[in-house]
Each structure stands twice: as structure tokens, then as C-alpha cells.
TrEMBL record:
5-phospho-alpha-D-ribose 1-diphosphate binds at R79, R104, D131, P132, M133, L134, A135, T136, G137, V138, S139, D200. It holds the Pfam family UPRTase. This is Uracil phosphoribosyltransferase. The keyword Repeat does not apply. Residues 6-208 form the Phosphoribosyltransferase domain. Keywords: Allosteric enzyme, Glycosyltransferase, GTP-binding, Magnesium, Nucleotide-binding, Transferase. Its cofactor is Mg(2+). Allosterically activated by GTP. Uracil binds at I194, G199, D200, A201. GO terms for cellular component: cytoplasm. It comes from Senegalia massiliensis. It comes from the Bacteria. Belongs to the UPRTase family. Binds 1 Mg(2+) ion per subunit. The magnesium is bound as Mg-PRPP.
Length: 209
């Protein structure tokens, strides 16, 4: 079973409070999502392998650690997942970025893939899939399927807020995927919005409504 990591850090809690607040406008919302993504990125990258390189400080020659050539990819689920990319790229400037787009078929209610473009060597990369809201899990499950179908083997899912229903659905469908959450909320409402949540993350990021 993949592991579940729920961040427990005062800065993340503080910033998520203002992300949730309905009076926070898109500019501040985007900045806060970027900042929380960076803080979460610290935890998501905790197990990256290191290697020694030799450098010269102004005082002496020494061996010091750098991230060893592990290839990384960030894969936002369109559209709201895009909001988390800038923060992650700030931490991981060499990471490649793939994109997965899904829409919900109004009749079957299934997620249908309309776009998937991933780095070529996807099977050699650790992919960090971003989606701010893990609600029912339907779109994240399909996005993970789309990525695995193209060869991805090492995947982490990173969300700001989740409902327990969504986490359970991912753990059942993709038990190999580690899940990183900023916060775990109470439940879903009848319209599949997370409660208390933050509303529609895509609309709040991009000022659409
Ligand atoms: N997607 C969102 O943007 N918000 C929710 O509460 C659920 C899904």
C-alpha cells in the first residue's frame, strides 16, 4: 500500500486557512497555492537520493551532497493542477512537466481523457501528479491510469486538500501511489465539493465563475 502523508506544519495550516477564505482573490490565492506547493515539495522530495561531489569552499576542498541524477516529472491534472506547478518548478528547476486533461462525461459520469503529454522517458522518472482538490478521486484515478498506461512506474500524488472518500478511492485503485496532502477535510457534499474545502480551485485560481 502506498503511504499517506498529511502535512502537519504551522505554515501550511496558516496559508491553507487563507486559501480557503472566500474573500481571498485570485492573485493572493495563486501566490498562496504556490507557497504551499513549495512547502509541501520539501516533504514530497524527502527521499530523493544524494551523491557526493567534490567542491572547493573558500577554505578547503570537500565532498558535499547533491541530488543524484534522479529524473523528476511534474504532471498537473488540468486545469487546477497547473496552480501547483510554479512552486514545484521553483524547487526543482530541472524537472520536466507533463500534462493530463480529463473531462467528465455528463451521461456516464466517467472521466474521459482529452489530453496527455508526458516526458519521453517517463518510465525512468519519478512523477509528481498535482491536483489541489482530491474530492471523489474519479479524475485523479483516471489521470494515474493515463500516466501508467504510458509507462510511468514511480508516481506520487500531491493535493492541497482531500476528502476521506477520495483518499480511499485512490488507495483502492492505485495502492502503489504515495499520497501527500496539505490537509484532510471532513467529507464531500451532495455536489461532490469538499467540506469545508475552498470551493472550485480552478475558478479561484483563474477568476472564472
Ligand atoms: N474540485 C474543486 O475544485 N473543489 C472541490 O471542492 C471538489 C473538486
Amino acid at each position: 500500500m502506498g503511504e499517506l502523508f498529511v502535512m502537519n506544519h504551522p505554515l501550511i495550516k496558516h496559508k491553507i486557512t487563507f486559501i480557503r477564505d472566500k474573500n481571498t482573490g485570485p492573485k493572493e490565492f495563486r501566490e498562496l497555492v504556490k507557497e504551499v506547493s513549495m512547502l509541501m515539495g520539501y516533504e514530497v522530495t524527502r527521499n530523493l537520493e544524494l551523491e557526493d561531489i567534490e567542491i572547493e569552499t573558500p577554505i578547503t576542498t570537500t565532498k558535499s551532497k547533491v541530488i543524484s541524477g534522479k529524473k523528476l516529472g511534474i504532471v498537473p491534472i488540468l486545469r487546477a493542477g497547473l496552480g501547483m506547478v510554479e512552486g514545484m518548478l521553483t524547487l526543482l528547476p530541472a524537472a520536466k512537466v507533463g500534462h493530463v486533461g480529463l473531462y467528465r462525461d455528463p451521461e456516464t459520469l466517467q472521466a474521459v481523457e482529452y489530453y496527455c503529454k508526458l516526458p519521453k522517458d517517463v518510465e525512468e522518472r519519478t512523477l509528481i501528479v498535482t491536483d489541489p482538490m482530491l474530492a471523489t478521486g474519479v479524475s485523479a484515478i483516471s489521470a494515474l491510469e493515463a500516466i501508467k498506461k504510458r509507462g510511468a512506474k514511480d508516481i506520487k500524488l500531491m493535493c492541497l486538500i482531500a476528502a476521506p472518500e477520495g483518499v480511499k478511492a485512490i488507495q483502492e485503485a492505485h495502492p502503489d501511489v504515495d499520497i501527500y496532502l496539505g490537509e484532510m477535510d471532513e467529507k464531500l457534499n451532495d455536489h461532490a465539493y469538499i467540506v469545508p474545502g475552498l470551493g472550485d480551485a480552478g475558478d479561484r485560481l483563474y477568476g472564472t465563475k
